[in-house]
Amino acid sequence: MHFSKTTAVLLIALSVAFAGCKKQQEATGAKQEGPGKGIVLAEVNGANITDKDFYKEQAALPPQLKPMTETPEGKKEMVDTMVVRELILQQAAKDGIDKSPEVAAKLEDLKRRVIVEAFLKKKIEESAKVSDAEMQDYYNKNKDKFKSDAQIRASHILVKSEALAKEIEKQLKGGASFEELAKKNSIDGAAPKGGDLGWFSKGSMIPDFEKVAFGLKDGETSGIVKTQFGYHIIKKTGSRPAGVRTLDEAKDEIKAALAPAKQQETFKKLKDDLKKQAKISFKEDALKELGGEGAKGGATHPADAQPAQPAQAK
Fold first, then answer.
1. Which of 32, 91, 143, 303 fits a 20 to 30 Å CA distance from 172?
2. Count of other CB atoms within 10 angstroms of residue 228
3. Minimal CA–CA distance to 214: which of 197, 230, 229, 228?
4. What distance in Å separates the CA atoms of residue 211 and residue 199, rounded to the nearest whole number?
5. Tens digits of residue pLDDT in 237-271
6. pLDDT tens digits along 42-55
7. Which residues face 211 on adjacent strands?
8. CA 214 remoteness from chain centre
9. CB-CB neighbours of 257 under 10 Å
10. Buried b (16+ CB within 10 A) or exposed e, 261-294
11. 122 CB neighbour count, 10 Å cutoff
12. 19, 69, 260, 306 from 300: Cα distances, Å
């Protein structure tokens, strides 16, 4: 089987993504749905690799590796990489590697991390919501912050190859969804939001991009625009004149401004409540030894002793 440097890079990336996604699904019980129809792309000793598997793995790749899987050759190499990984998994199972204490310990550690992350995310979403009253109060006290020049709102699809850009342009002309094509193909950070870049004024974007974006009519989609970042297809989704933005127009920005403090507050309350309900005793003598002889012997701090504070809710 052909095994190139690209395959090796993809294999490492896919192995990391696979472990994370698999354990998160086991920990949360959530079945992750995505694009694809379940079409079998390859069979490996009776195990099927489907288009659903392909799209899920592609979505989990780091942005810098996504372009490797955008061309026909890249897609085939990606499937070949998934075949190699499946072969390794099957052989590892035969050798009993999956039952080894080392693997079991790492899986248990990963499971703990994913459970903590899922728990915090759920609590943050439930308790750290910014209310309409809070947004109104912030807006009333900070109206000067919402003065702006004339702005437009736009979405874009960014890819590295002109060939892929032309293929996407063809699909758009055939009636395909801009948002779905952005989610599937764009290598930009706005891809999960359908390519939405939000509102921006002149001077916010690079000149080549900005000139085209501001020249479009609302709802109009551009042709292919080449910049230093790659090949863009831009869709203008709105425009507004200079002035003070309304509360509705500023809501996303206000939420982003208020959310971190709300999250910190929620996390602190959660932490304090959990501690109040628990029996906790610190072993002062043992704590004093940390960083001493024990550290020289290779002792490490428990990975889950203090969970990281949650990232900003979107």
1. 32
2. 7
3. 197
4. 15
5. 999 899 998 999 899 999 999 988 888 999 999 99
6. 999 999 999 999 98
7. none
8. 29
9. 15
10. ebbeebbeebeeeeeeeeeeeeeeeeeeeeeeee
11. 11
12. 23, 39, 31, 14
Q: What residue type is 212 in one-letter code? A: V
Tokens representing residue 30 in the block: 């959530």
Other Cβ atoms closer than 10 A to 26: 14
Q: For the whole model, what pTM was predicted?
A: 0.49
Q: What is the dihedral of CA 36, 39, 44, 46, to 10 degrees?
A: 120
Which domains occur in the chain, in start order?
A: 5-120 (no CATH), 150-241 (3.10.50.40)
Among 49, 28, 185, 15, smallest CA distance to 177 is for 185
In order of 58, 223, 229, 234, the CA distances from 74 in angstroms are 11, 25, 20, 25
**Cα–Cα dist 247/274, whole Å:** 37
Residue with tokens 């507004």: 240
